[in-house]
Automatic annotation (TrEMBL):
Pfam families named in the record: Cytochrome_C554, Cytochrome_cB
PANTHER family linked to this entry: CYTOCHROME C-TYPE PROTEIN NRFB, DISSIMILATORY SULFITE REDUCTASE SIRA
Species for this entry: Marinobacter adhaerens
Keyword Glycoprotein: no
Entry's transmembrane regions: 479-501
SUPFAM superfamilies documented for this protein: Multiheme cytochromes
Keyword Transferase appears in the UniProt entry: no
Protein name (database record): Tetrathionate reductase family octaheme c-type cytochrome
Amino acid sequence: MAAIERSPATADHSKFKALKGPFETASEVTAACLECHTEAAGQIKETTHWTWLYKHAETGQTLGKNQVINSFCGMAVTNEPRCTSCHVGYGWKDMRQPPPEADSAVDCLVCHDTTGGYKKFPTLAGDPTYIPREWPKGSGNMVQPPDLPDIARNVGATGRANCGSCHFYGGGGDGVKHGDLDSSLVSPERSLDVHMSPDGADFSCSDCHTTWGHSVSGSRYQVNAKDTLGIDTPGHTDLSRASCESCHGDQPHTKTKLNDHVDKLACQTCHVPAFARGGVPTKMWWDWSTAGRLDESNQPIATYDEAGHVSYLSEKGDFRHGENVVPYYAWFDGTVEYTMVDEQFDIDNPPLEINRLDGGPDDPASRIWPFKQMRGKQPFDTEYKTLLATHVFGADDSSLWSNYDWPKALQFASEKSGLPFSGNFDFIETRMYWPITHMVPTADQALPCSACHAAESRLAGIGGIYMPGHSSNSWLNRIGWLMVALTLAGVVLHALARVVFGRRKQS
């Protein structure tokens, strides 16, 4: 697959007087950008990237920053100093309130920096640092302020590193959350991702996630699980399809038999044989219930597994990481339903599914998809029977980070988030599902037929399918063997008849 050619830029930003600076803050850079790009801030403010809210058309649920508690750090509202370092804006310090209204609060540079020198600082509500600051605390590593005039004069189209500066690091670190998104995709080998590799198609994220007015297509809340429209026309006319079919069509193989699978299998099911394949591990298990242990000197504990991945932190509990992970497979029609923060659940029947995948074998809109299944244990209110928010990032004395006091930490998180807390809590095992769609290697690394058509099939346990070599039915097996026996008997009788009648003719 050859790299695509992009049309040259129509403007040289280094020649714009407004971008020569000096700039005391990144907001001043935005103000300069808006002198020409007059509608950009308003467009950004209409997107999920700005509001962190998503109104689900199928389920009616409003999802986002303070409606869902995920299987990682819980929710953004109780951990703003860290979470807002990935917001496409500046100054959002209290997420119980809407983002700042000023147009200059929009961050242009996080998406359009081409120098690699622009970094948001983890505790400054989306701003970079403007003075040298130590990070992480106690490390001795000093983070220097970015050269804002140089960055402003070198803005350009978004690239993998821009999108990845946030999406690769969700959940608290590189590769932690998604499994198929991590820093290895900034410049991957073809064997890791043939689309994003500089030696392959060299796609940027926006080549698939097309945009219109800064609104980006593709969503994990509502996935296009089965694109029936086929190849998109030049110009991406429907402006919503980040799907394999929009480039490859719905009959992508030269072998007809392989195309027979397209109706029931997502392309990713065969073409992403494993995730977390680029040398960056992904988190597969997070047990909050073990948090709070200290060493003999009453100091926090940090332990690591044989591969060097963190396996325990006093402020967060136990972890398990994985690399080259075989996905979890399920029928999926694209709709994901979430356990909301005020939703009561059956505490006697764990595990609790944080999100639930809609679809089934009888649904023509469904296909079998690959997922990362995130597992763990999370706190819940035993009286209200709802999940509880956690608080692990910040300097608050009430936080678990500081004193490892669970009741006090949960009470603080409750007050911070506005969620009720009875004071009684326990831990419940949870599951959360993340669709796998990146890290597509070259076609020769796609799954062989035997990966599914075998007794030890990847699709073991998937309902509504019958596959030769995998599925078994005792009566069908008996009938099959009877047919084999009858066929063999017929061949033998036919051979005997030829011998007998051949002798008669000779005599």
